[in-house]
Amino acid sequence: MLRHHTLFLAMMVALSALGMAHAQTSGVSIPAWVEEGSCAAAQKFEATFNGKPAPVLSQLGPGSDQVVLLVLDFTGDVSLVDAAKQALTAEIPKLPPNVWVGLLNDQDGLHVLVDPSPNRHALLEAIKGVASTGKPGLLESVTPALSLADSMIRKSPVRISVLYITDGNIYNYRQDYTNPVINGSDPHDLSRVFPDALIQDKISKLVEAVDSLEAPLFVVHLNYRGDTLNESYQNGLLTLADATGGKGQVCRSVGEIPDAITAAMARLSNAWRLTLGVPPKFHSNAQIHLSAPCGGADARLSWRIRVRPKEG
Prior knowledge:
By secondary structure, the chain is α/β, with parallel strands linked by helices. It has a domain at 4-8 and 63-273: von Willebrand factor, type A domain (Rossmann fold), CATH 3.40.50.410. Helices cover 32% and strands 27% of the residues. It is built from eight helices and 16 strands. The protein has helices spanning 4-17, 78-91, 120-129, 138-153, 190-193, 197-210, 228-243, 257-269; strands at 27-36, 46-49, 52-54, 56-60, 66-73, 99-105, 111-117, 159-166, 217-221, 247-250, 272-277, 286-291, 293-294, 297-298, 300-303, 306-307. Strands 7-6-5-8-9-10 form a six-stranded mixed sheet, with helices on both faces. The chain has a four-stranded antiparallel sheet with strand order 4-11-1-15, with no helix packed on it. It has a four-stranded antiparallel sheet with strand order 3-2-12-16, with no helix packed on it. Helix 7 links the parallel strand 9 (217-221) and strand 10 (247-250). Helix 1 packs parallel to helix 4 (138-153) and helix 2 packs parallel to helix 8. The chain is globular, with a radius of gyration of 20 Å.
């Protein structure tokens, strides 16, 4: 069972403690990055929404207050998990004090292990104690995790990201995503032609479910597996992260794990949060374009390109 309200209340207390007043806007927030060039905090971004100019109502750059929801999805090889824990315990203390990290585990549902706090000691000790047993839970927990982050983004002017560290094997999920062959003697049986159809369908549904949510998703998968179904699963995680404006990486060796976690931490730390003024109603998959003349020349930017209106 998701302890949604527990974490939500803790996060609201955290935001209040950081001195952030709640702010309701009529806009939509997107994550963005300056890939080349240098944009100062005072630099004004320019945006279009479905081809028409859209005002940038607010912008929060690197160094502004931030909350990271760190979700651990450990189920397998202890050597890989230990490498990930060591990388996390090395990187988290480097974060500035106005970055608050909440720790969650997704075994049998999404659970809060440590509420967001500037106290790094409790967080690091909890990370060290997380076991690597059980079933993977990312596919079931990622929408609740992003929904939780989205609730906080829409209530407070703060940057929020969700970071999953996972080693999941598609064969170990409680739900069977293997699309077993129905009729082995029938060469036209679609389960033979498309063995990863259930995985692709699940990823497509997840992308649609999170399209209206505003927090970026980052995924570091610790254990590359080269069989057809796991490759489809791993590629699906990258697709899901891309759809939110975030980023994913799959590690092919234990030696890649520290660099992957360092890169994920660096990228979420360097995120901008831009809130654009948009019409009260707009069609699904609205297109966004950004530009910023930084240092007298247009910087190379990346951002979440599409958004859907939030229902309700």
